[in-house]
Amino acid sequence: MNKIAGLALVTIALTACKKENTTITRIDPTTGDTIKIEVKAEDSAKVAQEMEAKAAIKDSAGIYTQTLKLEQGKTYPFTTRQKDQSTTTLPDGSKQSVTRENTDEITFTVNSFDNNAYDVTINFISKKTTQSAEGQSQTVDTKAAAPKEEGLKNRWTIDKAMTGNTLKMKIDQSGKILSITGFEPIYTKFSNTVNGLTKEPQERKMLLEQLKASFNEEILRDQFSKNIFIMPTKGVKIGEKWTVSENASPDGKVKISSHFTLKSVKDGVAEITVTGGIPKQNQKETQGGITQTLGSELVQNGTYRFDVNTGWIISQDIKVTTEQSQTFSDGKNSETMKSITNSNVLVNSK
User: Fold this and answer.
1) Measured distance CA(50)–CA(155) in Å, rounded
2) What's the pTM?
3) Which of 46, 224, 195 lies closest to 124 in space, CA to CA?
4) Which of 217, 266, 280, 304 could form a disulfide with 272 if both were Cys (CB 3.0 to 4.6 A apart)?
5) pLDDT (tens digit, 9 = 90+) per residue, 155-183?
6) Which residues are 97's β-sheet partners?
7) In this predicted model, what pLDDT tens digit does every residue of 201-259 receive, in sequence order?
8) String of b and e for 196-227 (b: at least 16 CB within 10 Å)?
């Protein structure tokens, strides 16, 4: 494989006649659209070399490394969407199904680049939640008017407080998030919102604590880090696999493993696949002659796509299946309840 083909930064369609134009294909990370650039055939090698030199994901002796090469003044999308479809089978065999969909629209605006780090404004634009069960559907959307039903209206009011906000982030070219700041004005907004929802001090305290627990530097670092940057710093070859393990339980006894593989680098896109999950777990506990058995298992698989030129995530599509069971037995009779949840976790999916 020659150098240009090995780098797979562009797709060059050469014609038999050198005087014909060559088409170079790339992806615009700010829109996800495919861009086709026409250049003279005799200039194609030079253009490819220039793109190679500027690329964020590049090949060196068959090993690909990733950096961030973002453009000052540009805004990059990070819209997350999760669809969950849960079916619970009760001991009598009857089934209950619930479908939920949560969408968070977020963007990152690059303000400046200094000392190998980007100064970025995180914009929290909107939230939308839809839940359907037993033929009924409810939607809370911060881009729409407040629902009339009081419970949904309160949820909308809280979601409104969580949007229209900005934070400052420092992130270096290696993808390491150095800091996320600017929470205090948002927490003040949370407090004012909670005070308007209830006069009960304990309820106010509980709601405010819940909001802060779901929106703080640690939570956002974790969320963004898992999606903005995936390739290991040492680099990987096409087809090479690497594994990341995280604690799935507070005591660290249960872990979730993600097995990543660099599938391809072509047409301006680096594609990474993921498999893994949590192996089947069983826990038993006996009390008062009744044995309770808890079982669980998680399986994931999907794809990440990154822009070769900037290193930014173009899209993510991960499917996760979670199975849980709970059985009570007195040695003679037993009752079991099972739950299966199929989730689709998406980033920048149109």
Assistant:
1) 51
2) 0.84
3) 224
4) 304
5) 999 999 999 999 999 999 999 999 999 99
6) 87
7) 999 999 999 999 999 999 999 999 888 889 999 999 999 999 999 988 888 888 999 99
8) eeeeeeeebeebbeebeeebeeeebbeebeeb
- Beta strands per DSSP E along 142-247: 165-172, 177-181, 241-247
Which stretch of DSSP H or E encloses residue 341? strand 334-347
Whether residue 238 contacts residue 231, with contact meaning beta carbons closer than 8 Å, is answered with no
Position 226 scores a pLDDT of 87
80: β partners: 104, 347
Would you call 73 helix, strand, or coil by DSSP? coil
Q: What phi and psi, each to the nearest 5 degrees, are found at residue 79?
A: -90, 120
| 6-19 pLDDT per residue, tens | 444 444 443 444 44
What is the rounded CA–CA span in Å between residue 60 and residue 48? 15
Confirm if 298 and 279 have CB atoms less than 8 A apart: no
Report the Cα 340 to chain-centroid distance in Å: 22
DSSP 91: T
DSSP 12: -
In the block, tokens 């037995």 appear at 329
3-state secondary structure of 107: strand
- Lookup: tokens for 115: 């000392």
For the stretch 235-248, pLDDT in tens is 999 999 999 999 88
**59, two tokens:** 């090949």
Angle value at C-alpha 104, between 102 and 107, nearest 5 degrees? 160
Phi, psi (deg, nearest 5) at residue 98 = -135, 135
What pLDDT is attached to residue 250?
Answer: 82
Which residue bears the tokens 């949007």? Answer: 163
The counts of H helices and E strands in the chain are 6, 17
Contact between 254 and 278 under an 8 Å Cβ cutoff? The reply is yes
Residue with tokens 């003279």: 40
